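User: Sequence for Enoyl-[acyl-carrier-protein] reductase, mitochondrial below. Tokens please.
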Amino acid sequence: MWGCGALLGARTRSRLWREVLVAWGRRWSAAAPYSASAEPSRVRALVYGHHGDPAKVVELKDLELAAVGGSDVHVRMLAAPINPSDINMIQGNYGLLPKLPAVGGNEGVGQVVAVGSSVTGVKPGDWVIPANAGLGTWRTEAVFSEEALIGVPSDIPLQSAATLSVNPCTAYRMLMDFEQLQPGDSVIQNASNSGVGQAVIQIAAALGLRTVNVVRDRPDIQKLTDRLKSLGAEHVLTEEQLRKHEMKNFFKDMPQPRLALNCVGGKSSTELLRHLAPGGTMVTYGGMAKQPVIASVSQLIFKDLKLRGFWLSQWKKDHSPASLSMAKPGLSGFPGVQRQLLPLGVAHGLSCRCSHV
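Assistant: Structure tokens for Enoyl-[acyl-carrier-protein] reductase, mitochondrial:
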């Protein structure tokens, strides 16, 4: 419902999808507390039976609701966004593909309707979000295993809860894992008005980091600049401004970035590298331009720049179950990351509303 319409290809169909998901959220978020006795036998879902153009292969279907087993949780979806990874999965060009036919949607928030006899972590009325990608959140309700869900407080904004598990967690890990940044250090990123970009702005501001945020030029650039600055962005520049010779004087008033976050590739990523401090790191987590990342030999040799990649799904796979304990110091596991982000959702209304990037 808070999707990146530019990535859906057909604006009309993307608006239709969002209207369907918004309608579900409005209908169920105002509902009274649920009980198992009210459990329906069929639900509606956006399903695809083969990979291809989402506008052509996704269909709204009625599905049968599975019975609730001992370790199962019946969830009624409150809100579900549309992410680039959702579209990539449907197209068949993502690193993780569910078995077909599949329900679309990797992210969202739902409310527990009923639980099985052996479920201890959640109870009816609780809010839950997916623990991993591929759960299929574009549906009115479903029965999931308890281990597929993570409970979140119900007193954070609905939009923040629905968009907590992908973009903010990606932003947080990239800010924490690649450079030992301290308050006052700076970070540069492109696609700054994307979901991850907006999360980077807000989390960086909460950590005392300064951000240089690059976006594509557009007629309403001042409106976008004002919105990103309202989230905590210190500087907002267009791709064209970043390429100007005058940029060499820009970092006289602030430290050169030690970390660059690249979601675009091509010339945009080359410009990020050009402004990185010696020994800095550029982390690539997307490729919206569908062009390769190009680094000059001199940047690698004389500036000792590092090129890294990040994929949240792989990060979760690489961490042992022991590290997922919310009681561990540093909250290093995935639920722990989300617990770290919850104060932002409450205090700052952590928002990743995405427009055309």
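The longest strand covers residues 72-79.
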